[in-house]
Hints:
The chain has 160 residues and is α+β, with helices and mostly antiparallel strands.
Amino acid sequence: xxxxxxxxANLGDPVAQVRxxxxxxxxxxxxxxxxRSSLYRTAPIGYLDQPDFVNAVIAxxxxxxxxxxxxxxxxxxxxxxxxxxxxxxxxxxxxxxxLYGEETIATRALVVPHPRMHERAFVLAPLAEIAxxxxxxxxxxxxxxxxxxxxxxxxxxxxx
Length: 160
């Protein structure tokens, strides 16, 4: 199954954190990295008194089911010291399962597509870079959704 994962960090060394997380995801069982976006610098949303984020999106081919993949992503976050003190808090690493094939999943633990991805340029810009025709079920393509967003302070940087 083709899955897309959003990565973000703004504490410690965010570039190193994101790159290490990409390597950890690529090393998961039954999982192969097939594309990675550039790194993007993004202003915080919600809680503004924090450093800018480094964001990226990767595509993987995986034999893991969505719940198992999400659990593995949470384990990688925990290994990087991720804490969740309050919504939109600064973080050492944030991993979001954005899309899992064309499936729509709504459980207590997992919602796919990610419920706010269509509103966030820091997700859509790197997604459109690696998969411009990726479809967000019920919403449209990454490219079309990105074009419909007002500027959100997302700046493309170096390769992930």
